[in-house]
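Handout, page 2. Input:
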Amino acid sequence: MYDFGNILMLKDGRTVVVYMVQGDKYLVTDCDNQEISFYVEENDVIMQIL
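Output:
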């Protein structure tokens, strides 16, 4: 389980910041382009960076 503000690396190589937690889904913002937000699930994440 991840919390608001955690930095994650996704399987597709993108680095994202958790913006909101909704059950088993996470609304994240892309670190390279903060205008891009999307939902991910735990199985989309390789590792937590911070």
